[in-house]
Design a protein that fits this description.
CATH architecture of the largest domain: Up-down Bundle
Radius of gyration: 21 Å
Number of helices: 22
Helix content: over 70%
CATH class of the largest domain: Mainly Alpha
CATH topology of the largest domain: Growth Hormone, Chain: A
Shape: globular
Distance between the termini: 35 Å
CATH superfamily of the largest domain: MFS general substrate transporter like domains
């Protein structure tokens, strides 16, 4: 029986697996920053959500160039490029803080996520290449298990070292400060917010050097097939499971980011309604966010077991229906009941990204090398949809439904799209 990870590949496997945790950390330290930036700069939630536009926009812009870069050079080169951009983006928080303006932070996020796009486009196939094909899927699942660990670490750092240390003045109190006092508070808060990013940037430089010196290029360099790029795209476009899979992935990433980003706004409203201060409500909301991620982690293992007995497209459909029902609870239930529904949604989302990814590429053959980039580009959903939800939050609500609750109509639509994709695949495979 082949080992999941052979001894000669063990060092490379361990180091590359660390990259899964690194991009999980970046994703989930960033989600609470929408609320943080809104408060620090006295902005609307809509303006604060530009963080997600910059963050996931980097994924979209760099996915295809990253795939072509790895195809032209090697997996190791792709990892180094990703780590380098990630480090540069994180370290750019230092000059952004000195400038004291919002937009340099957005540019830093964009550069940082260009690096994450390289890492995601490179690390998954690299892990597959480190050993036999028979154990490739188990090897990738093992590596992916470290992504939520990084996410939990990011949430913990955001809660303990950023949110808990920001000035406790509420948004309303900040709005009434004289300009000089506001600038002093803003400068201190930006120092708090930037410090974790600068530290991770320094650690990334060290990790870059470790990869450079210790990791050998195990996989063969991809041969250039530039002349086949056009026909490949045409074949992928004619492949309905793939084409619709990209659309489903767009909406999945959108619903994930919306539910994890705006749990802070939702929880803050609930807890302030119970008499808490704004800062205390935000910190407690972040704890609920961590619980949601823990549920996500556990559900991933449970759903992996369920896949032995339920076809992926059917399980995807069931999870989508359950997610839609829970989101309806988020919209129509008030108080902690709605918040608990929002936390529970994470159990439904746990296996969606890899399931859609796998279904979409099942029959792609060699086209999967470029097709994978399209599925990474679909992460744009996490950039486009959160600002739309933020606009609803900044509105007036509908009747007795608060604007925060009403905003979850968008996640509801996303789950409906995912259910339609699951049903389409199930019907197609029966023919």
């Amino acid at each position: 029986m082949n080992k999941v990870v052979e001894k000669k590949y063990l060092l490379a496997f361990c180091l590359v697996t660390c990259c899964f945790a690194l991009w999980g950390f970046a994703n989930d330290i960033t989600n609470p920053m929408v609320k943080a930036f809104s408060k620090i700069f006295r902005m609307s939630v809509t303006d604060g959500a530009l963080v997600q536009l910059a963050f996931y926009g980097g994924y979209f812009c760099m996915a295809l160039p990253a795939a072509l870069f790895v195809r032209r050079f090697s997996f190791k080169a792709g990892l180094l490029m990703g780590l380098g951009l990630y480090a540069v983006g994180a370290l750019m928080f230092l000059p952004a803080k000195a400038m004291g303006s919002y937009y340099p932070f957005l540019f830093a996020y964009f550069v940082l996520t260009c690096g994450l796009s390289f890492l995601e486009t490179t690390a998954n196939p690299y892990i597959l290449s480190l050993g036999s094909k028979e154990t490739a899927t188990r090897r990738l699942n093992l590596a992916q298990a470290f992504n939520p660990i990084g996410s939990l670490a990011g949430m913990f750092v955001a809660m303990q070292f950023i949110q808990a240390k920001l000035n406790p003045l509420s948004s309303e109190e900040r709005a009434m400060l004289p300009e000089d006092q506001f600038e002093a508070v803003k400068s201190a808060d930006l120092t708090v917010l930037s410090r974790p990013y600068v530290i991770i940037g320094a650690l990334l430089v060290a990790f870059f050097l470790i990869i450079l010196l210790l990791v050998k290029t195990q996989a063969k360099k991809e041969e250039s097939n530039d002349e086949k790029f056009g026909p490949t795209v045409k074949r992928l476009w004619r492949n309905k499971p793939y084409r619709y899979g990209v659309v489903a992935q767009f909406f999945y990433v959108g619903v994930q980011i919306m539910c994890w980003t705006f749990i802070i706004q939702y929880g803050t409203r609930v807890f302030m309604g119970e008499g808490m201060t704004e800062q205390a409500a935000e910190v407690l909301s972040q704890r609920y966010n961590i619980v949601a991620m823990a549920i996500f982690c556990v559900s991933r293992f449970v759903c992996t077991i369920l896949l032995k007995y339920i076809h992926p497209s059917k399980l995807l459909t069931y999870l989508g229906i359950a997610g839609a029902v829970l989101v309806m609870g988020v919209i129509f239930l008030d108080g902690r009941a709605g918040l608990n529904c929002l936390v529970a949604v994470s159990a439904c989302m746990s296996l969606m990204f890899p399931t859609i990814y796998g279904i979409a590429l099942t029959d792609a053959g060699e086209d999967a090398k470029i097709g994978a980039a399209g599925l990474i580009m679909a992460i744009l959903g996490g950039s486009v949809l959160p600002p739309l939800q933020a606009r609803i939050i900044d509105g007036k609500g509908l009747g007795n439904i608060a604007s925060v609750n009403l905003s979850f109509v968008l996640p509801l639509i996303c789950f409906v799209v995912i259910v339609i994709y699951g049903l389409f695949i199930t019907k197609t495979q029966k023919k």
